[in-house]
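Collaborator request, handled under Task 6.
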Amino acid sequence: MARPQQFDSEALLESLRETFLDLGPGASTQELAKRAGVSEGTLYKRFGSKRRMFTEALRLPELEECAWFTSIPARVGVGSIEEHLCQIGEGMHRYVSELMPCAQMIGANGKLRPQDFARLLGGDEEAPPFANIDAMTHYFEREMALGRVRETDAGGLARLFIGAMVHDVHLRLHFPDHVPGDSSTVARRVARTIADLAVVPSGKRSKKPTLGRSA
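Structure tokens returned to the collaborator:
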């Protein structure tokens, strides 16, 4: 039989949240544990990593648990690219909409140093912003290899797509009464524009080898 928890999960999360908001993401696990009245070992047993402590305490979404993100590889080579981009864009918009207000709130208290935030999120290849760019870049690269997307800078195309979603979230956060349409409308508009610019019409696609699903 598992031993009962010796702490209240909600109280623990609230304590971590208050400490992170007070000291910023650079708060040490020793200080987090001290203020919560538990040991550092308890924190790591409960959360596994400091990043997880931060995301759960601030109620931030985890990119690796978002269906729109994890589904990207399986979208290659099948169906409508415009529809895929629309669905990815809607999910990405929701994700950033949850993330951005909290990030701005933390930054506004003057305790946030850029290096603390970067250290907490992980290395370039691990941090969510870079993981998102890498996933979309790889998606466009594979579609180019299949002849479904015109040969161009896949990374630039990924940044255009992601940037449009993030920019709309930013506008809605600061000018909610002046942005027409909803997030779905914006995702559709951006997806259609990317498709018009980059997708090769089916009748003009050259024959290329089919990529393995695990590539």
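The cover message to the collaborator said: "The domain at 63-204 is CATH 1.10.357.10 (Tetracycline Repressor; domain 2). The chain has ten helices and no strands. Please let us know whether this matches your experimental observations."
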